[in-house]
Design brief:
7 helices, 29% helix, alpha+beta, single chain, 23% strand, PUA domain-like, 284 residues, 8-stranded mixed beta sheet
Length: 284
């Protein structure tokens, strides 16, 4: 796979789908949901043209984006692109949302990048298919990744987290599965809690030592725990939700070097290998 550091779209900028999205990263050029064939990413596309098929994508008052799954005839199914969204966290894949700007004189006006998102949950509702028949439609609740930062996660755990590594890992693995929800009003807090569970397990796993350089944490936090920072190995951004095998606990120096250093990509791949071996060695 290509390095995730090559995925660097700018929010608000317009891209050509064929040459700037699919040629570098692969994936279907026609589907509304297009998993990359070359990088840990899923590209999703929205636009006004889908409303006739029940695709009513929108932001709500909570800042949650309601994204309609794929499938134009009959009930939608949890497979293909829909499954890719549901399992993006457990697969370590980032979600990148684009909005089609329509066409002029038969020519596409491009795809405007709306940012990276995380899937909080999904709901089912009734709506028309391409032939006008009523069918079951899946709607994903997506939260912009910059809404899920570590400070907010620390403040929004809601319930005590276990001190047992085994129990913490069980919670973390369960958190990576997107479940059926009820309404978007609870999606934000749900994703905070799930992200906190993954972060808690990864920090317990590190046991106070940076998983990149192997040195002790630089200081002890006010709550008495060693200070390390979660790093999302497959993404440019940190925060959000990933499977524990794609998140490392690193010291601030290694964290900054991975993101900004000359050897950042190399250190990131070394961390990936270490975490994969560690997870396999502990639990398999």
């Amino acid at each position: 796979m290509s390095s995730p550091y090559e995925i660097a779209f700018e929010i608000g900028k317009v891209y050509d789908r064929r040459t700037q999205i699919h040629e570098p990263f692969g994936g279907s050029r026609q589907s509304g949901i297009s998993p990359s064939a070359k990088a840990p990413a899923v590209f999703i596309f929205t636009g006004d043209s889908g409303e006739q098929f029940g695709y009513t994508d929108r932001y709500d008052e909570f800042g949650v984006f309601h994204y309609t799954g794929e499938g134009q005839v009959g009930d939608m199914l949890l497979r293909g692109g829909n499954k890719a969204i549901l399992e993006h966290a457990s697969n370590g894949a980032s979600l990148h949302l684009f909005k089609a700007l329509g066409k002029r004189a038969g020519k596409s006006l491009g795809q405007q990048y709306m940012g990276e998102f995380v899937c909080a949950d999904h709901v089912w509702r009734d709506g028309p298919d391409r032939n006008g028949a009523t069918r079951r439609i899946i709607q994903f609740h997506l939260l912009p990744i910059d809404r899920v930062n570590e400070a907010v996660v620390d403040e929004a755990t809601g319930t005590p987290l276990p001190s047992s590594l085994t129990e913490a890992r069980a919670l973390a693995l369960n958190a990576t599965s997107s479940r059926e929800g009820s309404d978007a009003s609870t999606a934000v807090r749900r994703i905070y809690q799930r992200s906190a569970q993954v972060k808690h397990y990864v920090l317990l796993r590190a046991a106070g030592r940076c998983e990149s350089c192997g040195k002790d944490a630089p200081f002890i936090r006010k709550d008495g725990t060693p200070y390390l920072e979660p790093h999302h190995i497959n993404r440019l951004s940190d925060g959000g939700l990933d499977h524990p095998k794609f998140v490392g606990a690193v010291c601030p120096t290694c964290h900054r070097e991975i993101h900004y250093g000359e050897r950042g990509a190399e250190k990131n791949e070394q961390l990936r290998t270490y975490v994969e071996r560690l997870e396999h060695g502990i639990w398999v």
